[in-house]
Write a structure and sequence with these properties.
about 140 residues, three-stranded mixed β-sheet, 7 helices
């Protein structure tokens, strides 16, 4: 049995997701549950865990948070597939770049999701192709 690195496994999962999304675009279906990431790569945080907020301690209640919300990852992949300007591999690499989990406190999660309104979106002007994966966390710290 071949040995694959975590990075290789992640890229393979991204390619499989993009292939699946492309099939749905071709079939005229573009509804995907955000939990799809858990099914394509399990346990997800083993492969995409990036780190923790400085506020996370053994005493704090914390929460695993996707750096870029899953809804955004899905919508951006569908957008790029429909535009047909990038190859499936290029889209998979963008997905790999942005598919990260960060451990944050429950308070930080509430701020991101409800005070700033970033539960399922990224800040205005953010770009999947060129944007900073951690942009919403940076804006959350500065406000």
């Amino acid at each position: 049995m071949p040995d694959f690195t975590r990075d290789e496994i992640l890229l393979r999962a991204c390619k499989a997701l993009v292939y699946n999304f492309a099939n749905q675009v071709e079939e005229g279906r573009d509804v995907v549950h955000t939990r799809t990431f858990n099914y394509f790569l399990h346990p997800e945080d083993r492969y995409v865990y990036y780190g923790a907020s400085v506020s996370v301690t053994d005493e704090t209640k914390n929460h695993p948070e996707h750096a870029v919300p899953c809804a955004v990852l899905i919508n951006e992949c569908f957008r790029l597939l429909k535009e047909d300007k990038l190859s499936h591999d290029q889209i998979a690499h963008l997905l790999k770049k942005h598919w990260k989990i960060v451990r944050i406190t429950k308070e930080e999660s509430k701020k991101l999701d409800f005070e700033l309104g970033y539960k399922s979106k990224m800040p205005d002007g953010w770009s999947f192709e060129e944007g900073d994966t951690f942009e919403r966390f940076k804006l959350g710290k500065s406000s």
